[in-house]
Amino acid sequence: MLNKIEKIKAELLDELKNIDSVEKAEEIRLKYFSRKGKFANLFEEFKQLPKEEKPKVGQFLNQVRGELTNLFEETHVSLKSSSKSMENYIDLTLPAKRQKIGTVHLLNQTLREIKDIFKSLGFSVYEGPELESDHFNFESLNFPPDHPARDMQDTFFVNPNFLLRTHTSPVQARLMQKTEPPIRAIIPGKVYRNEAISAKSYCLFHQVEGLYVDTDVTFAELFGTLVSFAKTFYGDDVKYRFRPSFFPFTEPSSEVDIWWEPKGKEGRWLEILGCGMVDPNVLEFNGIDSEKYTGYAFGLGIERMTMLKYGIDDIRVFFDNDKRFLEQF
Ligand code: PHE
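That is the input. Now the predicted structure with phenylalanine docked in place:
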């Protein structure tokens, strides 16, 4: 019996050496390892042996079968991964292909930074509709009926009563109408203007509105908040100036310019925001007692701020969606 086992072992080893296809491997499996295969037969024979011989033969048979099963499996697996008939074989241990993912749009990066700065100063973030009524966009903000900004030149009207908002300030009015002071909010969003498209202006851009209404809010606080914001955003050595200005909904009003000196070019002041103390008329119109409360408001232009920070000189690049530009940031 032991000789017989040796013989089958030698025979199988020989066959494994010459194995060259998955089909052949299957043949071998049937021939040796199946229920009617050679090893099964050997075990049948083993059962008939006299008791004294069983331990020795049994041990040997088990050992040989174990070794050869392992060897067969190894050969089988390496055959599978190299075989043409296994074209669809997937090796799950291989590292995955790297997916190219996009970058956060530069305007969104700026917006996130602005939000973080104001959140750290205690402001909450709100939003409002882009399709706005004439009432909120103009009337609630103290625009006289014949104000030039209402002109068809600047505003995209959808119908006589509705328009694409020309600034984020209407959300100030919305907030005042539904919230009791203190209100301390920033409102980011898209705004639309019917202007000729050029390096400096586009029909669409982004603003971040700010509104703070409470008892005893002062212009000094507005000044301090905006200076601290500018320093955090542009760095401590930023050069800024507050320039008197006019908005129907703030009094007094101001604009803030930042000094810009592109390499090799002459420096100049660039406006980044409008601001002022909320006009008492606006507080009253929107249901807030102007005897008790005062407030300040500001509106930042996100494109402008970004252009200044990164030295970009054409606003249109933000909307071209040219990956060569976007991937730089
Ligand atoms: N809404 C003004 C604009 O778009 C900016 C502004 C906001 C000015 C708030 C004062 C206060 O130009």
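The beta strands are 124-125, 131-133, 162-164, 183-192, 204-214, 240-247, 250-260, 268-278, 294-301.
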